[in-house]
């Protein structure tokens, strides 16, 4: 399946991002098209869930891995070498490997030839005749064109900058930071192992940095980005830039001149270089004198590097050293990420000359666009064409998903760049005569609009406030319709960018839409929120396919002529047929049902639970809707209810038949339609009963659905009653759907559907109540989040009044008012000499804000905090009593550094990396020099790799059932497929690697665990950010595997890093800190640093007691860990005291006969004996002095194995020997869960949209399954 023409834009040679530049031998696409399903699954619109619970043969996948083979490469000037390739690779990828290898990286313009025949770049290796094991491929230098010469110069510049982190700090070219190697001192080979000296273990330095000790108050910022020694750049050249003599005049073009470069070597030699069709040579031009004739000698070389090697010894030495270092780095430290990650801090950087950067900045095109046939890219065509690629089998789906993902990440980058250009005033509006807020822009085939309410479109919904939230709601709609992926239904490429206080929506353009009036184009939906409404049979047919997965109810509404119109979406969802004949839907801002808690409707009573908590509350806009995750959770909750009600009724029928009502108590009692007494289910003996009941219901529901008339009326009635009780729209099967138009202002419904409306309203009210009573109690939102979000809202409007020249002054002033203890910071207005004396009337209008340009300067801390409190009240209905930052920090126990990080991330501010003194009352914390940059905050669609995701889920399911090996294979398979679709870097690949590492560890393969977890950490740093909560967890796992590999000092370094990040991001007071401190304490115990160890373990004990209550099992375990250290110190009294506390908890929680209680009681006996022995010895010494007969006491340092065992317990990796009875219970429990899950699946039949579900690390789980919490051991 070589790519069709439409794919050519993403496969242009310059575009290395598609394949991620992979180092030699690391074929990222191993076995690209090789997985054929044993039987073609029948896929309903290609999004049928392949159920991991099915028996294995259903989804047996034969992996016909086409085995790789080796070819020999002959390149000019170096020894021939062998290269491992796979038949699915394209020739293109061998090019990429050669451009990355240390000895061939300086070549870009070459062809690969076999027996004199040039290989086609886009051909797969398996299609090339005669290419086999041992074939010889020659690298042949080809003549340059202007395009090839530019690619060459750009590539050389990239090689020169390959260790320089400035692109990552500046947030360009999908570079991002990673610091893992600083803490592992390079690769995780043998570093950090304790060397054995004789029998004594050599001591390692374990002292943690002062600022991370429990109870410390310092929160240094500089430690966030430690200086990497590789960054001291090896200078190869002083200057490499385009010459002012470009482009070559006509007669020189006819001599083959393509362009001119100007270079200053480190030895200070100034040279002019011609790039010609034959290569690069020195010419005789100087800065002021044009003489294009070759110099003597001209050093003509095919590669710029070969030329420079000859004229500059320093270049030769440093360039080769630089490439050595470059290839030693872990590939994950340098591969580009799919989407740009921005850093909120950066060190002071030198601004060096850089020809490519300069050239990029002044061309309106993106990177390589000028090299793509047809100039700018037609984004809409690309986005839609990739969706139309075939998807009948796995290879096709992989190719399609890879193309979709690639176009999306390119589109996101282009849209972001365009949005910034629009706000910075560098793009001409298409309606320049209108008021600034109403202007719209087109740049690079993307349409840009600003988040203001133009023409009172949102008047009834909250004006500008509604116009600001509509784009993100719309994006969520696009995301969801894309995920359902119905053939023939198209959405627009959509990206929402927040930048400098403005919200910009970027969309791909429907062909023909700009030439006609909107009224003519819309053939489905409404352009005036439900007054005039039209429908269209083709749209109804397409949208009907989405209605089940999206849980949208088909319904009728009335238009202004009182005619009934049928819709299968909310009224403002519009259907437009483009000039390309495709059916587009847009304005998906109300795909999800409204959240009635924030939408008071006259005459509507809310459920009791809502009223009790003061809902519904008035909100500033009427577009609040429920998140998709909530809708899914609500439906799942209802489904369990449905199953239980039906099972209960069936059992009652059975019981009344047998006249034996004893069975009833075992079931769940149904009081007014809710399920009570859930506990009885876990009592053994009754589980089978319940499972049998659920089985019956499932079977019954299936037979009724197939409607073959064999079902007796009584059973039919059971299903009917259960359907009615849970609000299903069908009375023969479970099917819950929402009507998105129910409470829309201005939408009217026909009389005939009055009853249906009532049911729909009730369902929405139930969902609102479910949100309050079931979902929210499980969340913990921090006060700091409320404060920073309120501050963000204020900052947004504040920034709109600031012109470009005042940006850094305005931002530093805002941060001073927000975070500094200094009471009256003064804003510095831009220096007077720069402000023109004549106020130009015309210029004033250019500013998008209508505020006075200097109003921002008058803000005071008192005023800002007053506004933050009123914003928290108005928006979140949260009562904050803080007049200034110090009061807030004290009352709410907040850290200023954490608030600084939060506000910076939320608004895109980048500040200088240095220590800030927030508490100085005599001078402000920030100056304008501290504000380095302001980045966009970008929201976009994340296309999914569906097949990979199914494999991943099946793997997880297998692991939970205890089939570790099968699980491991499935997850490895998933990893392959993820790599295939996303390239090497992606959040989901990160989750995959983490799980693999955990499995390797459980199965005893520690070094493999280490290697996979190292990749997971690097990827998390690069894709999510260096201090993202996920990254902190990845560091903890890596530390555990390092410890198991006896790399103790590395393990400690990683744990200290994790604790530092945790302190910066959350502070000391966080439940996860207990787990981290237990880990640190245990490792320190293992290396006999007892006093240090106690500081961490006792802190963990305090945090656990605070968050889990002093009677919890976590606290018992904490007491035991502390006791063990006291035992090692021979302080038996303290040890006994702690172990007794633990014993009491175990006894009360688990009973006398539980293993944990017995273990604890044994340990108490042992401690008592030790204490008595010690006392005896002391008495003996007192009595007989120096000639006392002393029994040697056993003071043992803990064995590494015992420390590792405790580490496994606290990190939830348990290898627990279960008693036979436990195993039985467990099996039944697992079975019951699976049946419920399967049942839910069958009812849903749709893609699980939510992100890779994250196993809770703190819950003890055993390889065979998750233990139900009642029996959990820690």
TrEMBL record:
<dbReference type="InterPro" id="IPR028275">
    <property type="entry name" value="CLU_N"/>
</dbReference>
<comment type="similarity">
    <text>Belongs to the CLU family.</text>
</comment>
<dbReference type="InterPro" id="IPR023231">
    <property type="entry name" value="GSKIP_dom_sf"/>
</dbReference>
<dbReference type="Pfam" id="PF13424">
    <property type="entry name" value="TPR_12"/>
</dbReference>
<dbReference type="InterPro" id="IPR027523">
    <property type="entry name" value="CLU_prot"/>
</dbReference>
<keyword id="KW-0802">TPR repeat</keyword>
<dbReference type="GO" id="GO:0005737">
    <property type="term" value="C:cytoplasm"/>
</dbReference>
<feature type="region of interest" description="Disordered">
    <location>
        <begin position="189"/>
        <end position="212"/>
    </location>
</feature>
<protein>
    <recommendedName>
        <fullName>Clustered mitochondria protein homolog</fullName>
    </recommendedName>
</protein>
<dbReference type="GO" id="GO:0007005">
    <property type="term" value="P:mitochondrion organization"/>
</dbReference>
<keyword id="KW-0694">RNA-binding</keyword>
<comment type="function">
    <text>mRNA-binding protein involved in proper cytoplasmic distribution of mitochondria. Specifically binds mRNAs of nuclear-encoded mitochondrial proteins in the cytoplasm and regulates transport or translation of these transcripts close to mitochondria, playing a role in mitochondrial biogenesis.</text>
</comment>
<dbReference type="Pfam" id="PF12807">
    <property type="entry name" value="eIF3_p135"/>
</dbReference>
<dbReference type="InterPro" id="IPR033646">
    <property type="entry name" value="CLU-central"/>
</dbReference>
<dbReference type="Pfam" id="PF13236">
    <property type="entry name" value="CLU"/>
</dbReference>
<dbReference type="InterPro" id="IPR011990">
    <property type="entry name" value="TPR-like_helical_dom_sf"/>
</dbReference>
<dbReference type="InterPro" id="IPR025697">
    <property type="entry name" value="CLU_dom"/>
</dbReference>
<feature type="region of interest" description="Disordered">
    <location>
        <begin position="1240"/>
        <end position="1274"/>
    </location>
</feature>
<feature type="region of interest" description="Disordered">
    <location>
        <begin position="665"/>
        <end position="687"/>
    </location>
</feature>
<dbReference type="Pfam" id="PF15044">
    <property type="entry name" value="CLU_N"/>
</dbReference>
<keyword id="KW-0963">Cytoplasm</keyword>
<dbReference type="GO" id="GO:0048312">
    <property type="term" value="P:intracellular distribution of mitochondria"/>
</dbReference>
<feature type="compositionally biased region" description="Basic and acidic residues">
    <location>
        <begin position="678"/>
        <end position="687"/>
    </location>
</feature>
<dbReference type="GO" id="GO:0003729">
    <property type="term" value="F:mRNA binding"/>
</dbReference>
<keyword id="KW-0677">Repeat</keyword>
<feature type="domain" description="Clu">
    <location>
        <begin position="357"/>
        <end position="599"/>
    </location>
</feature>
């Amino acid at each position: 399946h070589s790519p069709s023409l439409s794919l050519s834009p993403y496969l242009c040679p310059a575009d290395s991002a598609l394949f991620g530049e992979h180092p030699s031998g690391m074929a990222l696409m191993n076995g690209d098209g090789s997985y054929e399903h044993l039987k073609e699954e029948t896929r309903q619109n290609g999004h049928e869930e392949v159920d991991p619970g099915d028996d294995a043969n259903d989804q047996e996948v034969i992996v016909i891995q086409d085995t790789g083979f080796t070819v020999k490469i002959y390149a000019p000037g170096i020894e021939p070498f062998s290269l491992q390739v796979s038949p699915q690779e394209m020739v293109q990828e061998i090019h990429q490997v050669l451009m990355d290898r240390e000895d061939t990286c300086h070549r870009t313009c070459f062809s690969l030839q076999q027996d004199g025949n040039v290989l086609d770049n886009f051909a797969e290796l398996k299609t090339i005749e005669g290419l086999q094991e041992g074939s010889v491929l020659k690298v042949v230098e080809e003549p340059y064109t202007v395009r090839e010469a530019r690619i060459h110069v750009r590539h050389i510049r990239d090689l020169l900058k390959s260790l320089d982190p400035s692109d990552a700090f500046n947030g360009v070219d999908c570079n991002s930071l990673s610091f893992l190697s600083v803490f592992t001192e390079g690769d995780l080979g043998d570093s950090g192992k304790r060397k054995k000296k004789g029998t004594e273990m050599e001591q390692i330095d374990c002292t943690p940095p002062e600022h991370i000790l429990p109870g410390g108050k310092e929160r240094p910022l500089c430690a966030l980005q430690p200086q990497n020694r590789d960054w001291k750049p090896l200078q190869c050249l002083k200057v490499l830039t385009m010459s002012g003599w470009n482009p070559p005049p006509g007669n020189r073009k006819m001599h083959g001149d393509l362009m001119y470069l100007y270079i200053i070597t480190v030895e200070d030699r100034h040279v002019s270089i011609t790039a010609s069709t034959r290569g690069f040579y020195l010419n005789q031009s100087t800065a002021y004198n044009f003489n294009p004739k070759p110099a003597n000698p001209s050093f003509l070389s095919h590669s710029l590097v070969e030329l420079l090697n000859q004229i500059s010894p320093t270049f030769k030495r440093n360039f080769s050293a630089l490439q050595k270092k470059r290839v030693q780095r872990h590939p994950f430290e340098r591969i580009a990420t799919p989407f740009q990650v921005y850093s909120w801090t950066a060190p002071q950087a030198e601004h060096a000359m850089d020809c490519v950067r300069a050239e990029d900045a002044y061309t309106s095109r993106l990177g390589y666009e000028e090299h793509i046939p047809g100039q700018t890219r037609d984004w809409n065509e690309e986005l839609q064409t990739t969706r139309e690629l075939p998807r009948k089998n796995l290879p096709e789906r992989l190719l399609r998903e890879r193309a979709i993902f690639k176009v999306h990440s390119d589109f996101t980058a282009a849209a972001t760049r365009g949005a910034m250009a629009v706000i910075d005033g560098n793009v001409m509006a298409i309606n320049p005569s209108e008021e600034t807020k109403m202007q719209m822009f087109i740049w690079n085939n993307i349409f840009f609009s600003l988040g203001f309410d133009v023409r009172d479109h949102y008047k009834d919904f909250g004006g500008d406030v509604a116009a600001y939230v509509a784009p993100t709601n719309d994006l969520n709609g696009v995301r969801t319709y894309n995920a359902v992926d119905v053939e023939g239904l198209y959405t627009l490429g959509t990206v929402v960018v927040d930048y400098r206080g403005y919200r910009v929506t970027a969309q791909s353009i429907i062909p023909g839409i700009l030439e006609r009036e909107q009224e003519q184009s819309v053939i489905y939906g409404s352009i005036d929120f439900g007054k005039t409404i039209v429908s269209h049979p083709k749209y109804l047919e397409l949208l009907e396919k989405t209605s089940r997965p999206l849980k949208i109810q088909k319904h009728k509404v009335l238009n202004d002529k009182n005619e009934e119109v049928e819709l299968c979406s909310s009224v403002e969802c519009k259907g437009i047929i483009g000039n390309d004949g495709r059916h587009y839907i847009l304005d998906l801002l109300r795909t999800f049902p409204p959240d009635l808690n924030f939408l008071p409707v006259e005459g509507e009573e809310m459920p009791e639970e809502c009223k009790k908590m003061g809902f519904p509350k008035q909100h500033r806009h009427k577009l609040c809707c429920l998140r998709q995750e909530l809708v899914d959770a609500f439906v799942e909750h209802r489904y369990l209810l449905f199953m239980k009600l039906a099972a209960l009724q069936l059992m009652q029928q059975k019981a009344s038949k047998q006249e034996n009502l004893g069975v009833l108590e075992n079931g769940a009692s149904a009081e007014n339609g809710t399920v009570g007494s859930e506990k009885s289910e876990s009592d053994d003996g009754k589980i089978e009963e319940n499972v049998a009941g659920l089985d019956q219901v499932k079977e019954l529901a299936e037979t009724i659905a197939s409607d073959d008339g064999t079902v007796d009326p009584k059973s039919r009635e059971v299903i009917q009653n259960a359907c009615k009780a849970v609000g299903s729209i069908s009375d023969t099967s479970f099917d819950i759907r929402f009507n998105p138009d129910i409470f829309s202002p201005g939408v009217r419904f026909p009389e005939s559907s009055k009853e249906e409306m009532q049911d729909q309203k009730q369902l929405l009210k139930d969902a609102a109540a479910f949100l309050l009573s079931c979902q929210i109690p499980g969340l913990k939102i921090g006060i700091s989040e409320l404060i920073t979000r309120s501050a963000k809202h204020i900052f947004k409007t504040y920034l709109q009044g600031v012109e470009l020249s005042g940006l850094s002054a305005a931002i530093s002033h805002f941060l001073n008012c927000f975070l500094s203890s200094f009471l009256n910071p003064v804003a510095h207005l831009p220096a007077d000499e720069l402000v023109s004396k004549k106020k130009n009337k015309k210029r004033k209008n250019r500013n998008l804000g209508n505020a006075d340009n200097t109003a921002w300067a008058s803000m005071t801390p008192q005023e800002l905090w007053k506004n933050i409190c009123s914003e928290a009240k108005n928006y979140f209905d949260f009562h904050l009593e803080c007049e200034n930052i110090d009061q807030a920090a004290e009352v709410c126990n907040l850290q200023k550094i954490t608030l600084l990080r939060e506000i910076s991330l939320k608004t895109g501010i980048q500040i200088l990396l240095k220590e800030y003194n927030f508490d100085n009352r005599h001078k402000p914390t920030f100056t304008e020099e501290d504000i380095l940059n302001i980045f966009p905050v970008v929201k976009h669609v994340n296309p999914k790799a569906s097949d990979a995701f199914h494999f991943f889920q099946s793997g997880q399911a297998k692991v939970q059932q205890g089939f570790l090996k099968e699980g491991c294979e499935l997850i490895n398979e998933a990893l392959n497929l993820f790599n295939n679709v996303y390239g090497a870097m992606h959040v989901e690949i990160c989750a995959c690697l983490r799980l693999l590492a955990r499995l390797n560890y459980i199965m005893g393969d520690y070094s493999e665990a280490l290697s996979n977890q190292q990749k997971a950490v690097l990827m998390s740093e690069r894709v999510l950010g260096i201090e993202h909560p996920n990254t902190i967890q990845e560091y903890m796992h890596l530390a555990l595997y390092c410890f198991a590999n006896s790399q103790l000092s590395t393990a400690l370094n990683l744990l200290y890093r994790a604790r530092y990040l945790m302190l910066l991001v959350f502070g000391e007071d966080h439940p996860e800190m207990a787990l981290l401190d237990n880990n640190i304490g245990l490792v320190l115990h293992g290396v006999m640093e007892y006093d240090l160890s106690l500081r961490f373990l006792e802190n963990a004990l305090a945090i656990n007691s605070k968050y889990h209550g002093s009677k919890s099992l976590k606290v018992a375990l904490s007491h035991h860990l502390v006791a063990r250290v006291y035992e090692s110190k021979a302080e038996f009294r303290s040890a006994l005291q702690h172990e007794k506390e633990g014993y009491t908890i175990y006894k009360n929680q688990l009973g006398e006969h539980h293993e944990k209680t017995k273990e604890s009681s044994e340990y108490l006996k042992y401690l008592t004996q030790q204490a008595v022995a010690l006392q005896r010895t002391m008495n003996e010494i007192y009595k007989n002095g120096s000639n006392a007969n002393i029994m040697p006491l056993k003071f043992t340092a803990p064995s590494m194995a015992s420390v590792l065992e405790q580490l496994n317990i606290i990190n939830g990796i348990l290898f627990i020997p279960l008693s036979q009875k436990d195993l039985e219970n467990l099996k039944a429990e697992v079975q019951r869960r699976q049946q419920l899950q399967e049942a839910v699946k069958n009812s849903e039949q749709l893609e699980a949209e939510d992100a890779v579900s994250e196993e809770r690390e703190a819950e003890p789980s055993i390889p065979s399954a998750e233990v139900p919490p009642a029996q959990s051991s820690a």
